[in-house]
Amino acid sequence: MKHLLLILTCFISFQTISQTKLLKDVSSTKQMSVEVTTLFKQNKINEAFQILTPYWPIPQNEIETLKEKIIKYTNIISNRFGAPFNYLKVKDETISDIAKRETYLIQYENTAVRLIFTYYKSKNGWIVNAFKWDDNFTEEFVTTK
Asked: Please, is 103 exposed, middle or buried when counting C-beta atoms within 10 Å of its C-beta (0-12, 13-18, 19+)?
């Protein structure tokens, strides 16, 4: 009986992890970032998460919680700061050939929000390591000395 319970627990644990696919190369990560950013600009958060989720190895319930919060706050931003009208890529950073981070800004009438995609190259392919969304883009200003 203990073995059956252990097997069932492991099976349930595997089912709650969202990641089922791998991105094959860096161009695939870039394409995903653009697709998700475009959907965010169109306020299609559910569709954006449908693209991210298969490549993101975190539990489904965490993804759902994050998605619900983002939907709530994007609606607040649209009501306060106007409609989104454009996006632009701000930064592309890498750590050797094992990690990549892409930063985008979505322009609203009176502010901007930042999307940060972090990808990690596992032994089998690229996965979404992290996704961050916020309205703090002050770090993106380039300073010269």
From this structure: buried
Please state, in angstroms and rounded to a whole number, the distance separating the CA atoms of residues 18 and 29. Answer: 17
pLDDT band at 18 (very low <50, low <70, confident <90, very high): low
Tokens representing 56? 């993101």
CATH architecture of 2-140: Roll (3.10)
Give 97-106 pLDDT, tens digit per residue: 999 999 999 9
Tokens 């059956």 correspond to 4
Place of tokens 């394409």: 31
Max intra-chain CA distance, the chain: 68
Tens digits of per-residue pLDDT, 29-77?
A: 999 999 999 999 999 999 999 999 999 999 999 999 999 999 999 889 9
Pairing of strands 99-108, 84-95: antiparallel
Q: Which residues pair with 23 in a beta bridge?
A: 126
The Cα 63–Cα 16 span in angstroms is: 10
